[in-house]
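Re-run requested by the PI after the first attempt was lost when the workstation crashed. Everything re-entered from the original request form. Ligand of interest: iron/sulfur cluster.
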Amino acid sequence: MLSVLLPTGVSSLSRTFASEVIKTLPTYKQFKKKNTVHNRAMSLFNPPKGLNFFKMFQKAYKQSKRQLPEYNAFSGALCYSGFSLLAQKPYNNIPKIMGFVQRVWKKDPMLKDPKELTKSIKFAAKFLGADLVGISKYDPRWTYKENNRKFSKYKNSVVIGIAMDDRALSPGTSFLSNAEVSFTYSKLALTLTLMTSLVKTIGGKCQGTINEALTIPMAIQAGLGHMGRSNLLINPEYGPGIRLANIFTDLDLNFDEPIPDTITPVCEKCGKCARKCPSQAISHDKKPSYKSPTKSNSIGVLRWPHDPEKCWSQWCKLGHDCVECIRACPFRKKSKKRGEYSPQEFIEEVLNQ
Ligand code: B12
Ligand code: SF4
Ligand code: SF4
């Protein structure tokens, strides 16, 4: 394998070993972490005036050029919320400043105007990894009955969407497409962790959820799209290949409006997902209805019926999940105009990007 990387004419016998490329003296010793400037500044020496980073941050934060977006208190809070995952095990790089930022924010809230706060929260969601963000009023119909006590104290739901890489879904249902599903779930978890830290830092109460509330109707109310025959939320830009999560908050935020439904008329004529579904879980009906095929569906909602038990049985047959209803949809955002990717093409492209 290594010889492939060698220039022509260089035999593998005369090649340099990787360990010989970087020269060190025999006196070289492994460096002790306790001697990094971070560690020494915090524990080993008393930093002279002007060199105490945390104190200087506090000073900078208090004196921040608050009229400038890149220097206002919200950007300061965003800057430290970005560390919140790093503060957790096993990374343990704990930013001790967070409590200070919270105290300053409480005394002097920067964003009293809901319009400005809404804009900042949406900016933060996208900055922290969301492809889509919309806000809907808290609606108890879209929380599980068991979660009523946990969530009913909140005013709104900030719904975020992260797109899956269509190239990984393109070759069809496989471990590779599953890897894209699981990786996107982890991306949602990262964005939610940082966002909830931000909301708490600026003095709000919140709860981030992944699959702990019915995100599709919340996303419709938040203006992110409409649900198709496939029972997937279809966003005009990303199609159905988007994964959803949300943060319930008590912040005073403005709500979005649902966008016009351009999806249902297309679904009425198309039906491709229903034809392609290997378990025939998707309805071939002409129109949405109030039907609930199984006990695993909620009752009394006008939408395309979907049979989750047939779908689940297909997953059980495969031993992993299925993405065929996403792939079938003409609203799917194709990554490449000339058509589908083969698994090998996708792997090569990722290696070279
Ligand atoms: C359980 C579940 C499943 C189950 C069963 C689905 C079901 N209908 O019960 C199984 C394992 C089969 C499944 C399969 C898939 N799932 Co799933 N699933 C969920 C989960 C975790 C809970 C949904 C639930 O409680 N269903 C039980 C009752 C409520 O189901 P229901 O009455 O049939 O309602 C469904 C829809 O009609 C809609 N809905 C509910 N109420 C209302 C009200 C209105 C007005 C409308 C319009 C819609 C609507 O939401 C439900 C979604 O299943 C959600 C996350 C979440 N919490 O929302 C993800 C979720 C719906 N799944 C998702 C996806 C992508 C898939 C798959 C493509 C798998 C994959 N590889 O990713 C397939 C697609 C199947 C399909 N065509 O629907 C995404 C959808 C993203 C999107 N763009 O819409 C979600 C939101 C997960 C996520 N975090 O992104 N899933
Ligand atoms: S995930 Fe597969 S089995 Fe389930 S509805 Fe979609 S296409 Fe059908
Ligand atoms: S494949 Fe066709 S019918 Fe199914 S959701 Fe997409 S547009 Fe609608």
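Saved to the shared folder this time. The chain has 15 helices and six strands.
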